[in-house]
Amino acid sequence: MLERAVHGASRWVLDRVDPQWVDYVASNTMTDINRRLNRFIWTYELQAQVVRVIDEAPGVKTFELRPNQLWRGMQPGQHIEVLLPVDGERAAPLRRHYSATMLPRGRLSITVKRLIGGQGSSWMHEHLRPGVLLRLGAAQGSFVHRGQAKVLHLCAGSGITPAHSMIESQLSGPEDQRSDQQLIAQFSRTEDIIFKAVLPRWQQAGVKVDTVFGGQAGARLTAEKLQALCPDVLERDVYLCGPEGFMDTMMSHLASLGVDLARVHTERFTAPSALVNPTGAFSAEGTEVVFKHLGQRITLTAADQDKTLLQAARDHGLDLEAGCCQGMCGTCKLTVHEGEVSGNTLGRAVYMCTAYPASRTVVLGA
Fold first, then answer.
1. Does 281 map to a domain?
2. Please, which pLDDT band fits residue 244 given cuts at 50, 70 and 90?
3. Which of 4, 135, 157, 238 is buried deepest, with most CB atoms within 10 A?
4. Do the beta carbons of residue 104 and residue 96 sit within 8 Å?
C-alpha cells in the first residue's frame, strides 16, 4: 500500500516537474534510506512504471509507461530495450526490444504480441500491471522518419507499432509540416487488427489507411494488390516491418515493381532463421570494407575469416553502434552501396552483427 502511494506521488511529480530538476534533486540527495523508500526516483537506473495496460487485440497488449527522470527521450520509430526479471530480481534479466510511441507528459507506450513459446512476451502479459517497475535501456535504432515528403508504411501484425509511433508524431505537429503518409497493414483476421480505434482517426487526418487480411483465401497482399493500393509507390520511401516471411515477400514484390531498394527501410522484431555464415568458403583475407558514412576503410586479414562485419570492424578499431547483436533490433544496420554481403540482409539493408563480406570490395553507408 505504501509503495503504491509512493509510486503514485512519483508519477505526479514527474508529470509536472522538469525531469532535469528531479534528476538534480535526486542525485544530490541520494542516500540508502531514500533508495529504499523510493527506488523509482532515487536510483541510478533508467526505469519506467507501468501506468496502464490496454488490450489491443487477442494476445496483444499495450503497456503505457512513465519513465523516471533519467529518460532522455527518443525519435519516433526507435525501439527501447526492456530488461525483464523473468527469473527473479537477482538473476540476469531477459533483454527484449520493442518499438515505442511517445505520449504526452513524457510518457511512452509499447505494444507487445504474446508469442507462442515467447518467454519475454508471456512474462509481460502475465506480470505487468499498473505500478510495476521495469528497467529500460536508452532508445536505439535508425528506423525513423528522415523528413521524406512521401512515405508508405508497409507492415504486418505487430510490425505496425513503429508506424504507429511515426504517424502519431506526424499528426501531432503542424498540418502544413506533415508529410504524405500512407499505411498498408496486413493482419490474419479483422479481430487481429492492432490500434483498431486509432486507424479511423488517422484516416480523418488525411492518412490513407488500408488493411489486408492474409488469413482469408485470396486476400494476401500481392505485388498487383500493392500497386493498386499505392499507385505512386515508386515515389515513396517505404518503411517495412513485420514477420520474417512477410518482409522477404514484400521485398520481392517491391523489387518486381521497380522500387529503388535503397529507399526501403526495414525493422525486424524477431531473429532471422539463419544466422551462420552461408559463404564460409569465401576467403575474407584482402577484402576491403569501406564505411562511407564514417570516411573509414579497413582491409580484412586471415584472422578475420568467419567474423561478422560488425566484429571485424570493431577488431580493426572502429567503434560501431550495436544493440541486441542477434540480427533483430537494427541498431547496427547499414546499407550496401557497392559489393556483396551474405547472411542477414533484407534488400540492401545489412544487419552488421549477423552479416559477412562476400566480395573483394564492400561499400557500406547509412
1. no
2. confident
3. 238
4. no
